[in-house]
Specification:
Elements (H helix, E strand, L loop, with lengths): L3 H17 L5 H8 L9 H24 L1 H20 L4 H29 L2 H15 L1 H16 L3 H21 L14 H13 L1 H31 L6 H26 L1 H25 L6 H27 L6 H25 L6 H31 L4
């Protein structure tokens, strides 16, 4: 596990790196390539997530057919092509196309790594491993904006994509040399659209899997809204430009800290209890802070704003490590396609919700905090609905 956790974290971190290293460069890219409005720069973030959401549905079943390793290799090929397209982009549309391809490519390592974990672990142990992976992985978004800003100061924003190429090839080689195949040939199944459809039906037909997939998408949607508008929030509201990576890193590390805490606690208290408490705390804080920002001060002090987001992301980190594991728990017999459906549906939902929050940015914190508030309340309702079905299923089986 000593080598497995950092390897999985590096491979999954392609997504975080591809998003967060770009944040300081968004104004430069938008200006150089002719983005229509300031908020249009956010599409550089959401287009990558859109590509990832669409592709995850394919990679899971593909890995069930050709094996985990070969499916991941195909993802790296597409990611490299997308990086090359972004490096030589001459228009904003060309950049967005490259970003979608990067999302499609990065979806391979992102979603199949979950299947790799599920192949070897289950239940609370799976949640523990995923928390360790997320804890290591979160160091990347904490450092990525610093790296991106440093590259901009020393070179051109296109050099950021060169860095993506180098790191993706490094992860590719490490994975190819050191990680054994976890899906034996006799356990593989043919790739057909009917298999994907049956996986969608089984996931959506299972109240726990579907409910917690929607919870994951809703919570991640609030986070995508933050990612989309973080650079604008710190720059426009608080006048923070050069120091933006430092403030972003503090918030990112709060998620990493909570992931490590979750890894310690989940074996004792369980995924559901921790998720429920974290979501309630997140929602209650968001309601209170939104009311303060709306009725008292449309632009809260920077210190108060940072305190809210640190606390909110501590809760978010606990949710990230658990809700996807709960959604996957009934799908162990279809780990590949199950991870694909859970990941794809939750990501597409988060892109839609997060895009709406980001595009609503108006020079205040209200759209972002309001998004956390509304989506927190929605996630609580969905979680309650999912758990009602879970209680009924256990009661029908004779378990109380």
């Amino acid at each position: 596990m000593t080598e497995f956790v950092p390897l999985m974290a590096l491979m999954i971190s392609l997504i975080a790196l591809s998003i967060d290293a770009m944040l300081p460069a968004l104004p430069n890219i938008g200006s150089d390539l002719g983005a229509g409005t300031v908020n249009d720069q956010q599409l550089i973030v959401t287009s990558l997530l859109l590509g990832m959401g669409l592709a995850q549905m394919v990679y899971g079943p593909l890995s069930d057919t050709i094996g985990r390793k070969r499916a991941i290799y195909s993802g790296y090929v597409i990611f490299v092509i997308g990086c090359a397209l972004s490096i030589w982009s001459t228009s904003f549309e060309m950049m967005l196309t490259g970003r979608v391809l990067q999302g499609v490519g990065a979806a391979g390592p992102r979603i199949i790594c979950i299947a790799l974990v599920r192949d070897q672990y289950e239940g609370r142990e799976m949640a523990r491993i995923m928390s360790f992976v997320m804890g290591v992985f979160i160091l990347v978004p904490a450092l990525a904006p610093v790296v991106g800003q440093g590259i901009i100061m020393l070179s051109h924003w296109r050099a950021i994509f060169v860095l993506f190429l180098v790191l993706s090839i490094t992860a590719w080689i490490w994975f190819a040399v050191r990680q054994p195949e976890t899906l034996l040939p006799e356990k593989r199944v043919p790739f057909t659209l009917s298999i994907i459809w049956s996986g969608v039906k089984e996931t959506c037909g299972n109240r726990v899997s579907f409910g917690y997939t929607m919870v994951a998408g809703t919570i991640f949607g609030a986070f995508v809204g933050y990612l989309s508008s973080a650079q604008q929030m710190f720059d426009v509201i608080y006048g923070i430009t050069e120091m933006f990576p430092l403030y972003f890193a503090v918030l990112a590390l709060s998620i990493g800290t909570s992931s490590f805490i979750n890894a310690r606690l989940v074996m004792r208290f369980g995924m559901r209890l921790l998720s429920s408490h974290a979501l309630r705390c997140l929602t209650a804080m968001s309601v209170a802070y939104f009311a303060y920002a709306f009725f008292v001060d449309m632009t809260p002090a920077l210190e108060l704003n940072m305190a809210y987001f640190v606390a909110a992301f501590l809760c978010t980190g606990i949710l990230f490590g658990n809700v996807s594991a709960i959604a996957m728990e009934p799908l162990g017999h279809i780990a590949g396609v199950g991870a694909a459906v859970v990941g794809s549906l939750s990501t597409l939902l988060s892109v839609m919700l997060g895009g709406l929050i980001g595009q609503a940015f108006d020079g205040t914190v209200l759209p972002l905090v309001g998004g956390f508030t509304v989506l927190g309340l929605l996630a609580m309702a969905i979680m309650h609905w999912a758990e009602l079905g879970n209680v009924r299923d256990h009661s029908a089986d004779g378990h109380v």
